[in-house]
Amino acid sequence: MAALKIKKGSSKHSAYNLRPNFSDVQETHTLAVLVDNEPGVLARVIGLFSGRGYNIESLTVAEVDHLGHQSRITIVTKGTPQVIEQIKAQLGRIVPVHEVHDLTVDGPSVERELALFKVTGTGEKRVEALRLADIFRANAVDSTLDSFVFEVTGAPEKIDAFADLMRPLGLVEVARTGVAALSRGAE
């Protein structure tokens, strides 16, 4: 009688391999959440993330309907597909939340961010900072004899690229607004 040999650690043929095939790949998602504009709502949304150990990479909040007293929270977060689905489901259960949209999967969207960069330097570094700012369509919103404050608007990747180029030229401070995003099209 031949015995069936299963290689140790091989779960391909095991009856005990009950774990579904979940992806461990981390994905970045942009969520748009429409909420009542009332005290404590943002704290509840943020509490959902912190209480479960989820990270928020970007957070933008503003009132979008003054008469309806509603605000839009745009959250950029990272997680496995299962974690993202769990976040969306849990957000939808919070009482003052009206809508949750995953702009990453809903179709094409437009994402923009505003950033201010303080760059110090003189001589060639100053000239190079101005040249790069022109290429990135950055506006110099403040200038002294040894520094500039540049304003850059664009996709987060553009903001990151500008920061990377300004570091060796004397970047000393950055302020970012966080991502504002809308889905494209009529809906």
From TrEMBL:
Reaction catalyzed: 2 pyruvate + H(+) = (2S)-2-acetolactate + CO2
Keywords: Amino-acid biosynthesis, Branched-chain amino acid biosynthesis, Transferase
Gene Ontology CC terms, in alphabetical order: cytosol
An example Gene Ontology molecular-function term: acetolactate synthase activity
InterPro entries: Acetalactate_synth_ssu (IPR004789), Acetolactate_synth/TF_NikR_C (IPR027271), Acetolactate_synth_ssu_C (IPR019455), ACT-like_dom_sf (IPR045865), ACT_dom (IPR002912), AHAS_ACT (IPR039557), AHAS_small-like_ACT (IPR054480)
EC number: 2.2.1.6
Domain ACT per the UniProt entry, residue ranges: 30-105
Quaternary structure (record): Dimer of large and small chains.
PANTHER family associated with the record: ACETOLACTATE SYNTHASE SMALL SUBUNIT, ACETOLACTATE SYNTHASE SMALL SUBUNIT 1, CHLOROPLASTIC
Protein name (Swiss-Prot/TrEMBL): Acetolactate synthase small subunit
Species assigned in the record: Shimia thalassica
Name of the coding gene: ilvH
